[in-house]
Amino acid sequence: MRRCTAPGVDWIDLNPGYLSKRHYDRMAFLVETVEGVTDRGLILDSPHPEILARGLAVCRRTPILSALSREPHKIDGVLPLAVEYETPLVVLLMDERSRVPVSMEERLALAVELREKAVAAGVPPHRLIFDPVLPNLSWPNAAHHVREVVKTVRMLSGWSIFPEPVRTMVGLSNLRSGLRKRYSLDVEMRCLAVLAGAGLDTVLADTVQPDFLGSYRAIKNLVTDGQLEGGLNGS
Fold this sequence. Notes:
By secondary structure, the protein is α/β, with parallel strands linked by helices. It has 7 helices and 8 strands, in the order E-H-E-H-E-H-E-H-E-H-E-H-E-H-E. Helix 2 packs parallel to helix 3 and helix 5 runs parallel beside helix 6.
């Protein structure tokens, strides 16, 4: 845990992965265990609203809730939790079939639609954090997706879509998941530099990788004037 709370790490992402119903309480165990040893903020991350509810019920500090998408069970299950617990909410730009849009235009259309649903349900706009979904580099059109994600972040962060400032987030570790022998850490850092220059607010990354935090701090100081937040994939 000490390695997970190094300077520069602002949030710890808790994702217990797939859980059968009899193990839904493991999210509560993770929250209580991590909050017992660190004051870092938590991101509760699960595709199942019931698991998120178990974690929210025991949080001592307000976490970030991840995530809303166009999937009906997310709209029906996650949105009420964000309203009840008054949490920031990650808006994952994926459609009702868990499909990631190909183009910037599709991503932005989803952002507009999901913002409207969230605000109508009672989530204030300033609590929304938009994640345009970085691809895994094994995808056939991965390079195109990366370019469209960068353009989406630039549009959302530049006050071009909504009347209020917009927070953005990406899961940087998605890029090399399962592919670390094929692609070096440099791939992640170059991508992060471009995204930071586009206005990215928060990055979820495996910060215990050797040399990651040094490169991250350099990007944070040189490109973003110190505004980029870091998160650890603590799944």
